[in-house]
Amino acid sequence: MLNYILKRLFLVIPTLFLIITINFFIIQMAPGGPVERMLAKIEHVETSFEAYQMKSRAGQYYKDEMDSQMIEKLKTLYGFDKPIYERYLLMLKNYLCFNFGESYYRQIGVLELIKEKLPVSISLGLFSTLLIYLLGIPLGIYKAKNDGTRLDLVSSLIIVIANAIPAFLFGIVLIVLFAGGNYWDIFPLRGLISDDFESLSFWNKVKDYLWHIALPVFCISFSGLATLVFLVKNSFLDEMHKAYVLYAKIRGVNEDRILYSHIFRNAMLLVISSFPSVFLGMFFSGSLLIEVIFSLDGLGLLGYDSLLTRDYPVVFGSLYIFTLLGLLATLISDLIYVWIDPRIHFEKN
Questions:
Q1: Pick from 313, 346, 298, 302: which is nearest to 120 by CA?
Q2: Picking from 40-49, 107-116, 141-150, 227-236, which range would have the lowest pLDDT averaged per residue?
Q3: Helices 312-340 and 275-284 sit at what angle, rounded to 10 degrees?
Q4: Of 76, 132, 220, 224, whose CB neighbour count within 10 A is largest?
Q5: More confident residue, 114 or 5
């Protein structure tokens, strides 16, 4: 097992290198980089009405009128005075030391910026994952026990229809019903905490926090819940028809004991082993539209804004960190797989 772990850890390096390399050159070659964006901002501030008329006659006005020294200073400021291969090698050198630099526009380090946005992503990812697993596993087992019944068919139809509704549309419906004031004004519209959060007692802080995240967590959990319910159900149904289950029934073993002592461990193997990857996906990806709808400033919104503004240190730093954690989560999933079922080993791989 130790050899397998070391082998997988060594494979993390070339995989991470390849992902970062491909994304670096694709994004760097995309038009409208930070220098061009800053030139456009300067031109917008300094342009008079007469200059605007000139620009309307020539789309490249700011390139012709902008002082060449200003352009060179901007290139030096953002590191574009060096060839692309030098910028690439410098990025790799810094990333090996976990030095991700500073944001172009926010005057703050990339790690500090990610840390600033983590509370929202932790809240959405942690509680969404808990909700999905706490509801999805019992419901999936129940559907497997009652497979083919009318209740199973009706619940499957409801889950499929609900899963087809986009999360952002579901969020808008919840806002209109429970937070918009048109029907029931129960939940807040924006933010993670109230303005007077610091003055509240401990339990009121907990209550206020859960009160704010209830609707966005429910929206994000909806599609994941449907997926997990069907995964659990199909896993249990597959195990129920195996020989060891039939043999236990012939011996007269109680059905509940068969279900929870024999079937449960084997059926939950895939579900439990995939938990690290699922949790990491919920933790870091979340939902951009959900963050926008509920005015939550998390990692999803940070990544989107960074791509729009060509804030390369934030884009590449976030990609490096999240990719590395994703690769490690895959390794952890394999280890959990072996821990749950000792019959499985990877020594020959």
A1: 298
A2: 40-49
A3: 160
A4: 220
A5: 114
